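can u do me a favor
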C-alpha cells in the first residue's frame, strides 16, 4: 500500500498494489497497481507498506471485492456507526462481519444486542445501503 502521494510515480496515498518483483542486485522493487506499475529504489521503500489487512481509515476511498470486518468489544473506542458504515461500503460484492453481536450493536448505536444478528451481509454493491440498514433494523417476526 502506498502511504503517501507520489506525483512522479502517479501513485497516491491508499493505493494498493502487488509486489511483482524484487531485484536484489539493483535494489529495485516493482509494484503493480491497478492503472500502472511503479518501481521503488531502496530509498523510496518507506513510501509503501504491506497491507494484508488494513484499517477502515486507510481503506477510505477504495473498494474491494470482499471485506472482512472484525468487531469485538475490546475495541470499544472504535465501535462507531460511521466506521462500520465505511467498512461495509468498501465491499463491492461481499461483506462479512466476524465477532461479537454486542460489539456490532454497540457500533450501530444500540446498547442491547438481540438474540441473533444476520451472520453475514452480502450482495451486489448497489445493495450495500440496504444491508447496512438491515443490520441495525432487522425484520420483526
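np, heres the sequence
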Amino acid at each position: 500500500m502506498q502511504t503517501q502521494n507520489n506525483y512522479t510515480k502517479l501513485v497516491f496515498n491508499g493505493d494498493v498494489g502487488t509486489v511483482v518483483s524484487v531485484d536484489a542486485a539493483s535494489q529495485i522493487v516493482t509494484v503493480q497497481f491497478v492503472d500502472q506499475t511503479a518501481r521503488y529504489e531502496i530509498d523510496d521503500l518507506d513510501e509503501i507498506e504491506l497491507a494484508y489487512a488494513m484499517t477502515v481509515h486507510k481503506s477510505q476511498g477504495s473498494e474491494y471485492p470482499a471485506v472482512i470486518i472484525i468487531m469485538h468489544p475490546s475495541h470499544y473506542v472504535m465501535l462507531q456507526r460511521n466506521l462500520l458504515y465505511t467498512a461495509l461500503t468498501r465491499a463491492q460484492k461481499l461483506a462479512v462481519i466476524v465477532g461479537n453481536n454486542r460489539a456490532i450493536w454497540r457500533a450501530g448505536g444500540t446498547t442491547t444486542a438481540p438474540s441473533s444478528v444476520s451472520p453475514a451481509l452480502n450482495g451486489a454493491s448497489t445493495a450495500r445501503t440496504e444491508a447496512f440498514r438491515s443490520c441495525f433494523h432487522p425484520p420483526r417476526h
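The longest strand covers residues 91-99. hope that helps!!
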